[in-house]
Amino acid sequence: VPHRLRLRIEGMTCASCVARVEDALSQVPGVTAVTVNLADGVASVTTLDKDTAPLIAAVKSVGYDATRLE
Ligand code: 9UX
């Protein structure tokens, strides 16, 4: 079943940052939905894969830091 998780994203300061993070997360296999809130610094991800490491790696690959929120 799909599940939702949230990531704290560090370093986003403008709307283009949001678009970069959304694009990166959307391309991770298993991801079916992504929303990123600039003001909160939080990404909400719906994914079929329980492994969060590829999500965090994708965010880091475009220049931001990410940590799982519980
Ligand atoms: Mo906006 Mo974000 O000019 O790295 S793209 S600050």
From TrEMBL:
> Would you identify the family this protein belongs to, as annotated?
Belongs to the cation transport ATPase (P-type) (TC 3.A.3) family. Type IB subfamily.
Q: Which organism is it from?
A: Salibaculum griseiflavum
Which part of the complete sequence is present? 72 to 141 of 815
All residue ranges annotated as the HMA domain in the record: 3-67
Record localization: Cell membrane; Endomembrane system
Name the UniProt record assigns to this protein: Heavy metal translocating P-type ATPase
- Coiled-coil positions are none
